[in-house]
Amino acid sequence: MKRLLCATLLLCARVACAGTVDPAHYDAFWLWAGVKPQAVLHGTRTVYVLQGQIEASPRDEAQVRFIAQGVTVPPLPHARMWLVYRAHTLRWTPRVTQIMLAQLARWRASGRTIEGIQIDFDARTLHLQDYLAFLRTLRETLPADCRLSITGLLDWSSRIDTDQVNRLRQIVDEVIVQTYQGRSTIPAYADYLPRVARLQLPFRIGLIEGGQWDAPPYLAANPWFRGYVVFLRNKPSQAR
């Protein structure tokens, strides 16, 4: 009976690891506004922390505003941090860039290890060329020792051509391809992974806590693959 119970528990643990995203099995996380820090962060190597949103004014698209969304981050002496900016428009004003650079300077002055800046923008097909131009300008604005990361939609890899990949590789240090939408895993995520794996630039896979994930065997062998980032969520008791 005891052997049967142990075997059952071991099987459940394997299923949870293979099918359900448990943050305890990962070491890189997104920490978003409204999400309370979890104990798992204390062992993290990398954390992506939301700092604000950039969006066009609903009354006048020519007016761009920065909405600060600072997140409380516990002491993480061994973690490298990325400052994340959720962009709904690429028409940044000089003031937006100044705010971002000022935040970067304050975080570095605090003694934290700041790896770089991440732009979270849903680049549609028609915007890919504009996005490349935006990223190139931003790259030139950042300090030389500040790395640049971006997120990518799951179907993004099928819409970007070789020339665009080559240019992107000269601008950004990594792409994190998100396998979820909202707070749920995209049902057909596995269908996109072969195309994602063909990206010829450093990439990670973005997962949602509690979502689904079954890693294909070819992914770990990919020389461009850099691991996973998990989007943390509040537990039911924390959501209140």
Strand content: 25-35%
Mean pLDDT: 86
Distance, first to last CA? 41 Å
- Quickly count the helices: 5
Q: What's the shape?
A: globular
Largest beta-sheet details: 8 strands, parallel, barrel
Write the element-wise H/E pattern from the N-terminal end onward. Answer: HEEEEHEHEHEEEHEE
Largest beta sheet: strand ordering: 1-2-4-5-6-7-10-11
Number of strands: 11
Q: What is the CATH architecture term?
A: Alpha-Beta Barrel
Q: How many distinct folded domains?
A: 1
Task: Flag low-confidence runs.
Answer: 1-17
CATH class: Alpha Beta
- The CATH superfamily is known as Glycosidases
Rg calc? 19 Å
- Proportion of residues in helical segments: 25-40%
As for the CATH topology, it is TIM Barrel
Structural class: alpha/beta
Protein name: DUF3142 domain-containing protein
Pfam family, one: DUF3142
Keywords: Signal
InterPro entries: DUF3142, GH
